[in-house]
Amino acid sequence: MSTRPSIPTLKTPEHHFGAMFLILVARSPDGETLRAALSLAENAAIAAWALRPEELITLTVEQYRQLLDYTAAPDVFDLALFLGGDRKQIRTLMDYIAGVMAEVQARYPSPNPQA
Fold first, then answer.
1. Rounded to 5 degrees, what are φ and ψ at 9?
2. 13 or 22, which is more confident?
3. For residue 53, what are the contacts with CB-CB under 8 A and spacing of at least 6?
């Protein structure tokens, strides 16, 4: 007897629960699409971290992911679902993530070191 693959857990900051719920209800993805979208989002976040700008070089992959999740988890998830979890679309999601992080960096720039 084969078992159905489990659906991965959505790790979402509490302030995004409502938006994530609405995305799931509105898009109503099947299990396969949900798994593919979550995998695409995870892989795109890691790839975007690897190509992060010099200003964010001190962030570990975990810190980068936490900042991304805190600021834009629903948007990244929604785009990954919109793309159908298609791995060929990873660059589209990476570019979106890089734009989100650039906006965060512009809004909250790193402090200048004092001489």
1. -80, 135
2. 22
3. 101, 102, 105
Question: Which is nearest to 95 in space by CA: 57, 39, 31, 52?
Answer: 52
Binned at pLDDT 50, 70 and 90, residue 4 comes out as low
Whole-angstrom distance, CA of residue 74 vs CA of residue 80: 10
**Which are the contacts of 81, defined by CB distance < 8 A and separation ≥ 6?**
23, 27, 29, 33, 34, 37
pLDDT in tens, 27-77: 999 999 999 999 999 999 999 999 999 989 999 999 999 999 999 999 999
Count how many Cα atoms sit within 13 Å of the Cα of residue 108 in the half-sphere of its side chain: 6
